[in-house]
Amino acid sequence: MIRAIAGRNNASVKLAAKLQKKKYRTERGLFVAEGLDLLLAADSVGASPVEILVREDLMERVPRRMLDTAQSGTLDIGVCDRATLAGASSLGGASDVIALFPLPSWSLGDLRLGSGVTVFLHGVGDPGNVGTIVRGAVAFGAEGVACSPGTADPYGPKAVRAGMGAQFLMPVVAEVALNDLEAKLDAEESRGNPAPAVIVADPRAGTDSRLLAQAMSRRGGDNPSGEGIVVVLGSERGGLPEFRRPVVRVAVPQTRFDSLNVAMAATILLYELSATRT
């Protein structure tokens, strides 16, 4: 259904506003993607919203597939003026589209740690960094992203915005405890699979990331392309997790001082890992 919405007391506007908070995203099983560019990104990969709030002057830019779905009665599109839309947005008056999507139900069991690259974020509190890392993980062919308790919600509005559609393209799992991750790694070994390598990004005590191939070799094998790798990143100010198993610590070399944030370091490491596995 396509309908006009006026005023911030509308139920759809109130719901979109509530979904700015993680509590309501979890309760309702929905998350918001703000911006026409994100709606177009979702459409390009076949992701379907359950509801769209759109500024009235942009209706003609809503993807045809979604307009057809609304006309058939299975998608609700609310046409809003600027002030009404601002009441549901984290962007305020700059918002043009707010789309509500089902919250993915990925779990740690969905991540294939035994092959490819998986990213584990430990206490990364900035949602923009989390979203950017998910975006980099997609760009360089990672298998998935796991986020520890204390890491910003990867499906929060700022993280989704920074991801620019990446959350529609790969498993991203929230609230993964270190003990559960290690149990999953142990399970891979118990099934007779090669032990996934754990690479910890540590600017204070790491091997030069440009020597990553040699570091992996010194780990005790040649790390064939079929073997899994878990890349662990923490916040710039927080500590790094302590694993029971051996890890390879790497650092991105910098010429003068530690000026890379975690998202920049993650992107560099993911690129360098993609080069070692081609």
Structure write-up:
The protein has two domains: 101 residues, 60s Ribosomal Protein L30, Chain: A, CATH 3.30.1330; 169 residues, Alpha/beta knot. Helices cover 33% and strands 19% of the residues. The protein is built from ten helices and twelve strands. The strands form two sheets. The chain has a seven-stranded parallel beta sheet, covered by helices on one side.
List the helices and strands and how they pair.
Layout: E1 2-5, H1 11-18, H2 22-28, E2 30-34, H3 36-44, E3 51-55, H4 64-71, E4 76-80, H5 82-86, E5 97-102, E6 117-122, H6 127-139, E7 144-147, H7 157-163, E8 172-173, H8 178-190, E9 197-201, E10 207-208, H9 212-218, E11 229-234, E12 248-251, H10 262-276
Parallel strand pairs: 1-4, 3-4, 6-7, 6-11, 7-8, 9-11, 9-12, 10-12
Antiparallel strand pairs: 2-5, 3-5
Structure in a nutshell:
This protein has 278 residues and is α/β, with parallel strands linked by helices. The chain contains 10 helices and 12 strands.
Total individual domains: 2
Largest sheet: 7 strands, parallel
Helical content stands at: 25-40%
Q: Which of globular, elongated, flat, extended, rod-shaped describes the shape?
A: elongated
What's the overall average pLDDT, rounded? 87
Q: Spell out the helices and strands N to C.
A: EHHEHEHEHEEHEHEHEEHEEH
